[in-house]
């Protein structure tokens, strides 16, 4: 259980911070909410008090004997400000301390995460850009806002990322500290999810990949400073903010998107589960049941192996290419023997091997793996969150990119 301070500044997205708060409290964390006076115009103190189970104040004049303006920050394991308005970022960048939240920011010695939300014009204004740069130089984490519908009818960059995405990001920070930025200046390309091959307008051949491991890879790479392109095949979980997302459905679409983005990528991770086979013919109408009770046969064709193609045709000589292998082991070999053969067959640099004998990985928040390398020994990654596995993969990638 960590001590988390949830700072809320005065933007309409303050209501979304209620869900963020719930996620923290339901996972057992101790949360102190520190709203600004402006935030209370949007969501009142009773809501924060009820959801956090603690009294709430905005000013330094409440409970002065307990010295909250110093204590709250000093005792925190993580401070997250969501939403962080342009005004709050400006105050934080300039070290102002006019209320309880800004005092807390000055006294905190733990990681501080800002999740900005504002109109695109305000986010892109040179004043905000400079304030964000100042905060990042000081080691604070400023998450990139999402793109999409803003308060009014307009759309653009500046939306608060989904509370689920902010929460996952914060868990990473609690687990590993503020990200190091070791992937800054790198472009990484990640595929996630499972492709679907249509049989007719309502049916498809698919697989059980949830996309969670690929999403964790994209989120953690962005947190470590990379420019990230995520090619997402039928992923239903929210995609991370600050990541370029290309949606695809079939293996052919996944291949096209990967080949298009690959030339500029320093690293490629194929976490997606492309369907290996597709129906030779797709019916333009729903296939009906036959009156005589007979079932149709489906003729299948093999799909191209994208990982093998990317590995054999590297756009950049020093590109690091990572594949995944979900293995069960069989009469021809153990999980590791089959995976070692697959690493050679695919021609990639690293292969992340999951033992799926128990079917445990699919849709689960956790994973356990061994990373095989063409240029070194295996690295076991103990059971842990998919974000932990993702970081272990990026550690391996980063060390190879730096050589
Ligand atoms: N992969 C790919 N294109 C395919 C199938 C798989 O790029 N058509 C990638 C996956 O994204 C993964 C790796 O290859 O990174 C291994 O996938 P896996 O399904 O284990 O490999 P297969 O080649 O299908 O091997 P198997 O013979 O075990 O089915």
List keywords for this structure.
single chain, 403 residues, alpha/beta, Rossmann fold, 2 domains, 8-stranded mixed β-sheet, 5-stranded parallel β-sheet, 14 helices, 19 strands, binds cytidine-5'-triphosphate
Spans where pLDDT lies below 50 across 5 or more residues:
none
The pLDDT mean sits at: 94
Number of helices, counting only DSSP H or I runs of 4 residues or more: 14
Bound molecules: cytidine-5'-triphosphate
Largest sheet: 8 strands, mixed
Q: What amount of the residues lies in strands?
A: 15-25%
User: What's the CATH first level of the largest domain?
Assistant: Alpha Beta
Number of domains: 2
**Second-tier CATH architecture of the largest domain:** 3-Layer(aba) Sandwich
CATH topology of the largest domain: Rossmann fold
The strand order across the widest sheet is 12-11-8-13-16-17-18-19
Gyration radius (Cα, Å) is 24 Å
> Given the helix and strand composition, which structural class is it?
alpha/beta
Q: How many β strands by DSSP?
A: 19
Helix content: 25-40%
């Amino acid at each position: 259980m960590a001590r988390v301070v949830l700072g809320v500044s005065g933007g309409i997205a303050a209501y979304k911070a209620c869900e963020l708060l719930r996620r923290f409290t339901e996972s057992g964390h101790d949360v102190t909410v520190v709203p600004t006076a402006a935030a209370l115009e949007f969501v009142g103190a009773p809501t924060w008090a009820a959801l956090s189970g603690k009294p709430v104040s905005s000013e330094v004049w409440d409970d002065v004997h307990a010295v909250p303006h110093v204590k709250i920050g000093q005792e925190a394991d993580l401070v997250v400000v969501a939403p962080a308005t342009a005004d709050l970022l400006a105050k934080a960048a300039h070290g102002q301390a006019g209320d309880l939240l800004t005092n807390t920011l000055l006294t905190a010695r733990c990681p501080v995460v800002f999740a900005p939300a504002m109109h695109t014009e305000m986010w892109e204004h040179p004043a905000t850009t400079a304030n964000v740069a100042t905060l990042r130089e000081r080691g604070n984490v400023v998450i990139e806002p999402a793109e999409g519908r803003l308060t009014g009818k307009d759309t653009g960059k500046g939306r608060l990322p989904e509370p689920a995405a902010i929460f996952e990001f914060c868990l990473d920070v609690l687990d590993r500290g503020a990200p190091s930025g070791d992937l800054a200046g790198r472009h990484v390309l990640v595929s996630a999810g499972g492709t679907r091959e249509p049989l007719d307008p309502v049916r498809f051949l698919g697989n059980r990949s949830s996309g969670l491991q690929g999403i964790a890879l994209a989120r953690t790479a962005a947190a470590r400073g990379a420019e990230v392109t995520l090619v997402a095949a039928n992923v239903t979980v929210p995609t991370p903010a600050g990541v370029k997302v290309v949606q695809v459905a079939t293996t052919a679409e996944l291949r096209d998107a990967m080949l298009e983005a690959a030339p500029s990528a320093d690293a490629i991770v194929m976490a997606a589960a492309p369907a290996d086979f597709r129906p030779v013919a797709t019916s333009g109408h729903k296939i009906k049941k036959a009156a005589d009770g007979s079932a149709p046969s489906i003729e299948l064709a093999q799909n191209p192996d994208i990982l093998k193609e990317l590995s054999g045709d590297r756009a950049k000589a020093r590109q690091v290419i990572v594949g995944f292998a979900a293995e069960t082991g069989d009469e021809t070999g153990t999980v590791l023997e089959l995976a070692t053969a697959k690493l050679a067959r695919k021609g990639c640099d690293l292969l992340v091997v999951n033992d799926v004998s128990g079917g445990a990985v699919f849709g689960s928040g956790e994973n356990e793996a061994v990373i095989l390398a063409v240029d070194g020994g295996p690295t076991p990654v103990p059971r842990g969150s998919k974000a932990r596995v993702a970081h272990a993969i990026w550690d391996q990638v980063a060390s190879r990119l730096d050589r």
